[in-house]
Amino acid sequence: MLNRNRNVETFLGCESDYEESRIVLYGAPFDSTTSYRPGTRFASRTMRAESYGLETYSPYQDLDLEDAKVFDGGDLELCFGDTERALADIEACARDIVADGKLPFLIGGEHLVTLPAFRAVQAKYPDVAVIHFDAHTDLREEYLGNRLSHATVIRRIWELIGDGRIFQFGIRSGERAEWYWSAEGHTKIQKFSFAGLDETIAALKGRPIYLTIDLDVLDPSCFPGTGTPEAGGVRFTDLLSAALRTIRGCQIVGCDMVELSPPLDPSGTSTATALKLLREMLLALEKPYLK
Amino acid sequence: MLNRNRNVETFLGCESDYEESRIVLYGAPFDSTTSYRPGTRFASRTMRAESYGLETYSPYQDLDLEDAKVFDGGDLELCFGDTERALADIEACARDIVADGKLPFLIGGEHLVTLPAFRAVQAKYPDVAVIHFDAHTDLREEYLGNRLSHATVIRRIWELIGDGRIFQFGIRSGERAEWYWSAEGHTKIQKFSFAGLDETIAALKGRPIYLTIDLDVLDPSCFPGTGTPEAGGVRFTDLLSAALRTIRGCQIVGCDMVELSPPLDPSGTSTATALKLLREMLLALEKPYLK
Amino acid sequence: MLNRNRNVETFLGCESDYEESRIVLYGAPFDSTTSYRPGTRFASRTMRAESYGLETYSPYQDLDLEDAKVFDGGDLELCFGDTERALADIEACARDIVADGKLPFLIGGEHLVTLPAFRAVQAKYPDVAVIHFDAHTDLREEYLGNRLSHATVIRRIWELIGDGRIFQFGIRSGERAEWYWSAEGHTKIQKFSFAGLDETIAALKGRPIYLTIDLDVLDPSCFPGTGTPEAGGVRFTDLLSAALRTIRGCQIVGCDMVELSPPLDPSGTSTATALKLLREMLLALEKPYLK
Amino acid sequence: MLNRNRNVETFLGCESDYEESRIVLYGAPFDSTTSYRPGTRFASRTMRAESYGLETYSPYQDLDLEDAKVFDGGDLELCFGDTERALADIEACARDIVADGKLPFLIGGEHLVTLPAFRAVQAKYPDVAVIHFDAHTDLREEYLGNRLSHATVIRRIWELIGDGRIFQFGIRSGERAEWYWSAEGHTKIQKFSFAGLDETIAALKGRPIYLTIDLDVLDPSCFPGTGTPEAGGVRFTDLLSAALRTIRGCQIVGCDMVELSPPLDPSGTSTATALKLLREMLLALEKPYLK
Amino acid sequence: MLNRNRNVETFLGCESDYEESRIVLYGAPFDSTTSYRPGTRFASRTMRAESYGLETYSPYQDLDLEDAKVFDGGDLELCFGDTERALADIEACARDIVADGKLPFLIGGEHLVTLPAFRAVQAKYPDVAVIHFDAHTDLREEYLGNRLSHATVIRRIWELIGDGRIFQFGIRSGERAEWYWSAEGHTKIQKFSFAGLDETIAALKGRPIYLTIDLDVLDPSCFPGTGTPEAGGVRFTDLLSAALRTIRGCQIVGCDMVELSPPLDPSGTSTATALKLLREMLLALEKPYLK
Amino acid sequence: MLNRNRNVETFLGCESDYEESRIVLYGAPFDSTTSYRPGTRFASRTMRAESYGLETYSPYQDLDLEDAKVFDGGDLELCFGDTERALADIEACARDIVADGKLPFLIGGEHLVTLPAFRAVQAKYPDVAVIHFDAHTDLREEYLGNRLSHATVIRRIWELIGDGRIFQFGIRSGERAEWYWSAEGHTKIQKFSFAGLDETIAALKGRPIYLTIDLDVLDPSCFPGTGTPEAGGVRFTDLLSAALRTIRGCQIVGCDMVELSPPLDPSGTSTATALKLLREMLLALEKPYLK
């Protein structure tokens, strides 16, 4: 009756051991460059606590997370106020996971956490391309005088991989300079929707792909719990479909889900929605090994 | 100027006397088996308090609640912590209403309150079938060791009426075992939507129907105020249409609306939405007698 | 089991009939002149709904509200946006109560509602004096160009009864001009506390007294649910003692309790505190008739 | 480094001087006739504070607010509790703006603030017509005994301009009498949607138009932050499109945006949505002058 | 860098192994009989999550929790809606701890969870007495028809141990019948404060003591996060002192802390206060073993 | 009627020009090193917005802020995520103010903002001493690997000025190592209260003093709106008295008020309390020049 082991908490009951797992979840509770309304630091912790409201079975895919091999490494303990150091810690963790031949799946935090996770993946897969779902371009050269920011993260990634390898969907906000810079051929932006996603997937066939999902790509009606809500976004079923098609059609070598800010949505809907997307993505990633 | 009578509060100004009314509203503020986030116990009380924000006239049906004969019996005073006893009290109340030849319309509370209300109706209409709108299957054999739970309620009803008499719409969540059990022919599940509802209605023509609406069938964007929000649900206008078609096409002998949890939606939108659906359902039920 | 009467809701289970009651509670859900954070309009309704969390028995006075004769007339339906009209409606109601030989006990609403209630009492008791507990002087000549305002209410009452008949306790905020005007002898202000209350009570022996309690006299630590919290206030037990001593020592001919704003205190503590004070005041008023 | 000027706050960085501007924004933080849940008084202030989360560039129109000439005059200091006086102050302000040949763009507050703003515009453009987006008819003769109310505002405007000049879209709530009165030919109501808007715009070509947008025309899923949410509304992209088509097709001589109530939406989504609509409307109004 | 063990969460970093520990913390997230505002089920989980805001060192006692031997067994998974079963599970857990010669320290949940914890202790220490800090008597014979309720828990314990062995402090609320029943000699109530506590401690010297702390003994100003706040309570330093004196002066064989309801206090103050008291109590219990 | 100047917002109506002012208020909305619950970045902005609820007159000192010469420079626009840079910007601003012979009064933000403000003051007054009111020692050598943190700020200041020049009051939390390090003679800590403050003031007579107030020195009952609430703090009147005595008895050359986190206190009480303390401190600082 009494639990004589220490109290363990994981996403969605992902209870595999590290060694046997194929996917490693890890949380980066970091939002230091969030200029306006912080709170994404609470995302991973809140998602774990709310996991128990979710079923492990997916009627969308007829698969069950109980059969999946996923390890939850908990949250990194990151330094607040020293961004470079925090990013270095995230990168080191991602490198460990990659080195062990497992898929690193990062739960943010703000979008800047994608940068070190991507770096770790790129070190192993130099020709990696990026599929990016977001409301915002995130292509600024700097933001409030800072080159390392949630608003610059995709620009920093572009510096690592260059033109033509970043594919952005659902975008509906950004400074004029960002849009014009992208239009020079640096990245490919699909405004407002996932139109053209299937063509992109087909074109990237066989290439290693890093998939980064800023959850504010969702319409705020579905996902109010985020720092900079942008009306006019996609519906949950659109995002779910886009994510599953990407996973099925691409060789995913790293991925993340960022910008959930639980304190901004007291109904808990945003957290539940992120968890549901996470479940479906994990199942899609594991599908080749299940059943 | 001064009101010398005691202070009365009703849903939507439903001010008919008991004797003259055809429909009896009664609240069951019970959520004891809600494992995660309680709060549906506040639904009926909050709906009454917020009623005054709603018009009695429906531009959807060109009917006015002022012409309807609906009595609001207030909330039952239920025992917390002793589920069997609380259910017995609800059943006794529903039996009274049924015995008086009136339609019992229950406002939950968690979904388990449907069980005793259904039992009372079934006692009079042994061949009653069930139309069930919900995000969740509610077909578990037991939940946390408990056979009486919001997660088992439809399974318990199935035990009373057997195979082929339960029609579930909008379902998008459940344990694997529940889906597979249903697929053995015990209930009919329509995933995600109301597809096939009209055929079901046609097939049930002339049969007494109990209509139970778990409001979480709605997408959480429309209805965040519920304990276990499930992304990917139906829109309000879909639900409204489905409910009205069911009422118009079937012989409704009992109905309920459950799982509104007002504390989870500080905007009040969920409560207002439940009230609007209630108004439209009452008007549709009363339509034969109006104008 | 089923309640065949309409749904009734009262403060603290005050279930006496109007005729047999000695005290009449009535709510004035009005906050139209509240310039900053409205919400007192919800006070009376929220107090009724939360009443059931309170015991009817007082260990402070060893008396039980079940023995008291108090009628709750519910809330007046007041016109928003037309202050004079709303005040006229409150006054008419108070006059009815006074005319029937009962004690009018008003639940605000903002403090301005005291003015019409006082007028009704003064019509019967021309020599009535005022004991006023508050954080604010409320002595402005006008506020935002308005002579009828929560910030001017005691000044308006002074215009009705003149110098030396208003006794203010707990005051810790006001414009310089208000303090200086009072110091000219118009009212008697006791800063910060209830010092001198017993002397005031003794001096007023035999005189009819209107007692008006702005609950923000309490320290915001005890009572955060009010529109203009002022640090440095009195504790609950201080206020309770002051109110009971006033009731026991004076001939109360009217009283009120104002400025609870439930939406500002999600913990519900402020509402519960107001209810407890209300219970004790009712019991103290009824004590001569209870055994 | 130190700002030696006083602290200035504007909508969306609208930093033009009054003299050079073509559009003048002004806030009317008034909600005194709001009978149920006040809070629109905080709309303009909150919108200013949250402006910094929004980009000035529109990917919808490829225009940037930095190029526009818009002045923000801040909020009027209005008398609470004396409606006629508050309306007079709003009207005087709007008259000043109109007299200076600028477009007055009002940010409410409750819908009643439209009345004085409209009066000021009508004084200069006697043949002005009204395009009205709303969930509610707002056509009552009086509300709680008050002729000046958010629920009567369009009726009052009709009294000024007569039959056939008010075009209402998205309407889905109102008393039976309002709908029937409109159907007598007084106003033209399009239920639930913007169907027929383009025809209306075409018919009004060349006529001066006052555009009034009650933001509760939006579905509450997109816009929960409003006092009387009505399920079944339009989506943000529908409203955006309708507003832009109206501005492009008509000669707008005055406009407003009302009924945002920030305290009701802790996620901030409603405020951000209102700001985004405001940006797009300002850009559409300025488009002829921008390259 | 990467944590290859599963994610562990404990109170205050209590990281001892079960075997080496002298005190065992265990959570009972149960609030099924809470009639009014549920939420105590979230107490233990929230306390764990917020632990990291607290220092392990006490300047009150000059002791550090890092030196203590405390094991946190996490939360029991309890059946909601079947009170007897949930109580049985708690009792079984407490019996295990007692059997292993360790001190069971229970974190509620509602006050009813004390009953099974007490039973387990009483089985080993038949002459155990109870020291009880609370705002409420909890001496009802039944509550809403239920003998097992937070409002009856001390009465149920009295049935187990009889007259003269229950010492209640800080009490300020209860039904008249409870007070009068206690006054017949069944329990000893100290109204409002801890007066007489030292005498009680002295009298109980050498006797095994179960200490049960309902945190609503605190004034709601210090502790708003509880379901039934009662104004007029003790201050934190009073409670801290009373708890430490009890622990130092008595042979504590079991204890608990109940009725924290985190959702009711969005500031987090109540949770932080409960944690601080917990730290101090653990240190006082461990003091004999620390240097 | 219309304001043709841009919209200006200041603390408490502090409307003096920069040149004529003796005190300069400036906000540092920075909380990047706050590891747990961010939100102090909103303090200065929220205080300005809420200023209008406060009177300018003090009944405590019989002085009026309308007579004071205080300039509000608004908030610095600080880089999030690059702590060193943000601190440099604060220091530059403080240096400007000091260079102009004015008193810099900083509104935080987290406590780390004190460091650059202090540096600017120390550059002019090398023998400056520090009076520090706080719940926490803030004496860590580093925190989460970071030497620049809210938890290390007083240690960093000690490195600038050495032993015996820092006087800490109200302290009730800290790591063991911090307490022991202080006890070696580095700083002087008064636990729990302001005992000894008058002696400290007397001893420091004639010395320039920097006064830094972490508002969490207040008991959380008075001030719940702070990130790390610590039960057992001082009351508002204690803090007010301590601050006024310090200002009257010392030569204040710089001061600040930090750690208000408005989002954590939805009642607004904490913000109102900070504003009241600010008003009183400004009046005490200006007193020599008033009347």
From TrEMBL, chains A, B, C, D, E, F:
InterPro entries: Agmatinase-rel (IPR005925), Ureohydrolase (IPR006035), Ureohydrolase_dom_sf (IPR023696), Ureohydrolase_Mn_BS (IPR020855). Its cofactor is Mn(2+). One of its GO terms (biological process) is putrescine biosynthetic process from arginine, via agmatine. GO terms for molecular function: agmatinase activity; metal ion binding. It comes from the Bacteria. Its EC number is 3.5.3.11. Binds 2 manganese ions per subunit. Keywords: Hydrolase, Manganese, Metal-binding. It holds the Pfam family Arginase. Mn(2+) binds at residues 111, 134, 136, 138, 214, 216. SUPFAM superfamilies: Arginase/deacetylase (SSF52768). PANTHER family: ARGINASE/AGMATINASE (PTHR11358), GUANIDINO ACID HYDROLASE, MITOCHONDRIAL (PTHR11358:SF26). NCBIfam families: agmatinase. Belongs to the arginase family. Agmatinase subfamily. This is Agmatinase. It comes from Mitsuokella multacida DSM 20544.
